[in-house]
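Chain A, query sequence.
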Amino acid sequence: MPSLKTLRLRIKSVKNTRQITKTMKMVAAAKVRRARSAVENARPYSELLANMLSDITASASGSAPLLLTGRATIRTVRLVLCGSDRGLCGGLNTQLMKMAHVWIESQVALGRTVQVVAVGRKIRDALKSFQSDLLVASHTDMGRHVEFSHAQTIAAQSCEAFELGDCDAVFIMRSRMVSMLTQTPEVSQLIPFEKPAGTTTASMDYEPSEDTVLAHLLPLNLNMQVFSALLETQASEQAARMAAMDSATRNAGEMIKKLSVQYNRSRQAAITKELIEIISGAEAV
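Chain A, predicted structure.
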């Protein structure tokens, strides 16, 4: 049985840990509100831009940009996998990696070569450990806040690889924030442009021509889709961290209770033993 001193040190250590996790939970709660607000502000613009492109593609001529038409045969696909730079966010990165493995296997089964661009240190490290041959680029240490310039860098890299023929299609995988307690990994196609499901086509006239408008809007849409994915992942990370730290705080509280009971019992047993020794000594005299 541990000594009283050992139990006191353990209780003190767990209390310090509980204070840390409680503070981290409060910080994550403040950050997730800002991150969720940023996601909600970006969604309408992103959806409207995608719907506008859907309308234009219906009347685009045969000279439409390659970003829209794509290539007839897809031999190499690139996956932009968005995760977090920091840990202590529950199973966020683990869920992303599990879904990525399934997606990669499905692409390989189709006879395609897979390339992965890691966004986030945790994703990069996981890929280096298990599938380093798939990793072609990584983006880490993007700071505390997602900037549009980060999305532009990632989108430009993917667009350049597509135009040079290094890959024939680009997909992006992120963790979508369904609620404060639920974050779901999902994958969508970036290049070539994929018409959103459920959209309706309106009859519209454009100046200048549809092809000119497409040449301007397609790269803009690409930047916006990547930016939205980064915002979603950041919000999911903070929500997952808040939930993980809340669970850790409650577990620490339960451990403190158990250790306190054990400490009190040990202390009581030690006192009882000393009393018995004193009484036994007195009777012997």
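Helices lie at 4-57, 66-69, 92-109, 121-130, 148-163, 210-284. The first helix runs from residue 4 to 57.
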